[in-house]
Amino acid sequence: MSAPTVLIADPDWELAELYRRYLAEVGFDVSTAANAPQCLARLKAAPPDVLVLDPELPEGSAAVLDCLYGEGAAAPPPVVVLAAGRDLEALYRAAAFPISEWRDKPCEPWRLAECLRAIVGGQVAAAHGADW
Question: How far apart are CA 126 and CA 113, in angstroms?
Fold first, then answer.
């Protein structure tokens, strides 16, 4: 079984890279996007098992969520919102969609991994053995 795929859409490239490296070390296949157009392109090219989304994503996290949940859209991946909570309007827009999990930024990488493991179930354990 292949590793669960995660797309991290976050404008903070240092934090996204930290998460990407840690999650890859613990068995996830991770890609990143720094803005909404990159996120949408990656979603269309290879839909992930889970999307980790900053609601303050440049050029519109609302556009990403509209694409995922819009009329006629395929079944969307679970969405984990990782928010610093500075832009209340962006948070309210994101809250209008079915979000699997909300986490505050900064979130420790191991906590994010734990959250993602719970969402994807036994996929990681099955792929990597009982040490999970």
Answer: 16
Q: Which residues contact 50 (CB under 8 A, 6 or more apart)?
A: 4, 5, 6, 7, 77, 78, 79, 80, 100, 116, 119, 120
pLDDT tens digits, 40-62? 899 888 889 999 988 887 777 66
Identify whether the C-beta of residue 44 lies closer than 8 Å to the C-beta of residue 70: no
For residue 115 the two structure tokens come to 């959250």
Q: Is the pTM of this model over 0.85?
A: no
Neighbours of 92 (CB within 10 A): 10
- Rounded to whole angstroms, the Cα distance separating 53 from 71 reads 20
Domain 5-128 is classified in which CATH homologous superfamily? Response regulator (3.40.50.2300)
Angle between helices 13-25 and 109-120 (to 10 degrees): 60
Domain positions in the chain are 5-128
